[in-house]
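quick one before i forget lol
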Amino acid sequence: MSHPSIAVLDELIGGLAVGGARRRQLGMVRQELTAALEQDRLPRQARKDLPQLLDAAVLRHYIRVAETGALRTRLVNGEKPPTSEPTNAARLVCLEILRREAGLPALTIGVAGPVALRPVPQDEQLRALRRRLHRDVCTAQSPGQARFIAVLGVMLDTRARAGELVVQRICHLSGDGRSMDVLRRPQHGTDTPARRETIPLSPLSRAALDRWLPIRAELTESLEGSAKALWVSLAHNHAGTLHDDGSYTRRRQGMPLQQRGLIRSYNSGRHRYGLADLLPPKIEQLRRALERNTATD
């Protein structure tokens, strides 16, 4: 679908005197903006003309969405991971160029460059987290809490990323439930091939999975495809497909959990189950803390 604002953007980019690398980066931004418009992630007025497309508030929202990887045009190992920090920095530079060439003032969303990583939990905090989960695993009050503890237990053992967790299947568990296969996926589209690791599971993970697996079996009882997924949804939700009448495509409970759903459940679970003092705000902070521990063992 062609939008007037994108047509003008094409003319502007075509007239820029930039090198090949920068032109490819500008092309990436153009593709992302087009995808954001077609997915209705930006206001409809942004389709009409270039100043509205390059409006500062519109671009701030676009940047947040783009950094999640949702606007990628190609999958990386079957998913859309967040974009890398160099890509995020190049995106900001391109937007500054486009706004300058369009006669608009500079953005006030920060300068491109290295981004400081969020702090990670320290060793004592991780030990306290394990003690708390050991206490809670036998008293989980809901399917959500049972799944939450099982996900955390597996993550503590495997150091898996969110994208690696959501592709786990029942067949990745060993027959005796004492180990799990994890497919390590390279980040940001590198040429490093995926590799499979078999990792022993702790008593915590085994106990948590013993609680979760019967719940999961009930949720997937009538869904043949979901019977393979280790992590599944707990309630009806929508697939993100918006129809003309404002309704969404509905997905029933027991469907394979998607990466965004896993991250949302982590974010809400920290508070819902009283773990905000032990779990960092972002699931990636927890994973980096676990990687740090492995590196220093």
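fyi The longest helix spans residues 20-38.
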